[in-house]
Amino acid sequence: MPIQTHPAAKMNAPTGLFANHFLRGGQLPGGWTDSIATAGAAVSFSQGQEIFSEGDDADRFFKVSAGCVRLCKYLASGRRQIEAFHGTGEIFGLEAGDAYRLSAEAVSECTVVAYRRHALQPANGNTALFEALFFHAMGDAARAQEHSLLLGRSCAVEKVSIFLTERARRDGAGWAVTLPMSRYDIADYLGLTVETVSRVLSKLERDGLIKLTTARTIAIRSLTALRSEEA
Amino acid sequence: MPIQTHPAAKMNAPTGLFANHFLRGGQLPGGWTDSIATAGAAVSFSQGQEIFSEGDDADRFFKVSAGCVRLCKYLASGRRQIEAFHGTGEIFGLEAGDAYRLSAEAVSECTVVAYRRHALQPANGNTALFEALFFHAMGDAARAQEHSLLLGRSCAVEKVSIFLTERARRDGAGWAVTLPMSRYDIADYLGLTVETVSRVLSKLERDGLIKLTTARTIAIRSLTALRSEEA
DNA sequence: CGTATGTTTGACGCGAATCAATTTTCGTGG
DNA sequence: CCACGAAAATTGATTCGCGTCAAACATACG
After folding, report:
1. Can you tell me the distance from the alpha carbon of A20 to that of A222, in angstroms, rounded to the nearest whole number?
2. How many C-beta neighbours within 10 Å does residue A113 have?
3. Which residues contact A213 (CB under 8 A, 6 or more apart)?
4. B144–A contact, CB cutoff 8 A
């Protein structure tokens, strides 16, 4: 069975300002990076390492060239909320203000390329880049809203099911989903505890919807059934 | 005691593309509307009326000139999640795709002005408008992420407390917070039930943090104490 | 004034968090 | 290559916050 197409991918091209770009979450059209100065060569981070921290001066933004990055926020109580995971080709860390509102950390060993924010100049006639950034911001907002929906109105089984189908759609490798992140990361992304995530995965396996090949590799037995678990 | 300034308002002006605009959530600089064609005069909606529906052709976007609008999504199960409330001066309904991803409804009697999306042309040299839209999108993303944090990692008391302090900050009318929306709306915004919202408000009143003057008017007794209820 | 809608309060049950204990996985050095 | 220790993941027992169900009360509207 083919992986179903995400609703957003079905949209037709709109008119006017909106006629040129259709981007998947966080991505920008190829070649755009040539038009602005980079802050340097690609930088690698080992697993768990911090790329930038909430409150840091947001003078740079990044593109993932390999691996996976998480954007998260820590509360005074020690709780953590992961806002998003960013994989290869996606950009992150572009802020409107002068400080990062979230921290970025390497989920897995990863490589990112940094770009200087002040290199972005709207007056230089590079409307294509400008448009791309605009759509990036719009995509960010859309994904954050989807995330809110997930967090606000779903029970544990629904959350995990949605997470898995979304993952399956992303890496598009058929039924095998490879998770770069830990159960803790998944829990903090879904607003659950590690134990609950683990329990739900076990339940989904007992029900025959998935198979936990290894802890970080999940085979999806029935995407249809899994989707039906989504509210 | 003065209402505390929201962190975002404290940011210093950044450089480059980011040097010109500092906008509160969803707002655009005055006068920008003169530069594009409107779809017509202001339109009024009565309480509860639908402005647009999820899936509708998103050829227009709107600015609230009076009243309050809610953006929400309905799940198949009948559950509803409110993503945001938009008050006077804020714009909403600007989409990257060709269809609205959310429905917009009038929370209170309200008036909005519609603008044609295709009137937005980046090539006409109107970089100021373009920048404004970019920052609008960035602001949308930021607020959606704050919302995620709220939904994912807060208990009922924290959610309501954050909601109230945010409201107090918005209308800035000292200690009296006027709520244009019902308890149902608040509940669906916070990912709670009406009963829980009501119970928490009663508890906050019992504890002396607020005073329920009328159902839709709340006097804040101690903003400090209320803030300490936040996570 | 009566009906509908919105709000509050109470009783109860369920789902997910918490606390606790294994088991598994994985990185590291012998 | 295997042994070891640490971290990750799973599983179980119990608690508790919030949802659900139900009813009383308040407010707005025709």
Report:
1. 36
2. 18
3. A176, A219
4. yes
Q: What is the 3-state secondary structure (H, E, C) of chain A?
A: CCCCCCHHHHCCCCCHHHHCCCCCCCECCCCHHHHCCECCCCEEECCCCEEECCCCECCEEEEEEECCEEEEEECCCCCEEEEEEECCCEEECCCCCCECCCEEEECCCEEEEEEEHHHCCHHHCCHHHHHHHHHHHHHHHHHHHHHHHHHHCCCHHHHHHHHHHHHHHHHCCCCEEECCCCHHHHHHHHCCCHHHHHHHHHHHHHCCCEEEEECCEEEECCHHHHHHCCC
Q: What is the pLDDT of residue B11?
A: 33
- Average the pLDDT over A76-104 and give the result: 95
pLDDT of residue B123 exceeding 60:
no
Read off the tokens for A109: 């060993």
Length of chain B: 231
pLDDT above 70 for A20:
no
* Largest distance between two CA atoms of chain A: 59
CB contact set of A25 (below 8 Å; sequence gap of 6+): A90, A139, A140, A142, A143
Proximity of residue A197 CB to strand D below 7 A: yes
**pLDDT > 80? residue B31:** no
Question: How many beta carbons lie within 10 A of that of residue B154, not counting itself?
Answer: 23
Phi, psi of B211 (to 5 degrees): -135, 125
Segment 14-73 of chain A within 8 Å of chain B by CB: 14-18, 58, 73
DSSP state of B216: T
Cα separation values, B100 from B40, B54, B58, B68, Å:
20, 5, 5, 19
> Which residue bears the tokens 């990044």?
A62
Instruction: Indicate the pTM of the whole model.
Output: 0.88
Work out the burial of residue B214: count CB atoms within 10 Å of its CB; fewer than 13 is exposed, 13-18 middle, 19 or more buried: exposed
B127 and A CB contact within 8 Å: yes
Average pLDDT over residues A128-154: 91
Nucleotide showing the shortest C1' distance to residue A155 CA = C15
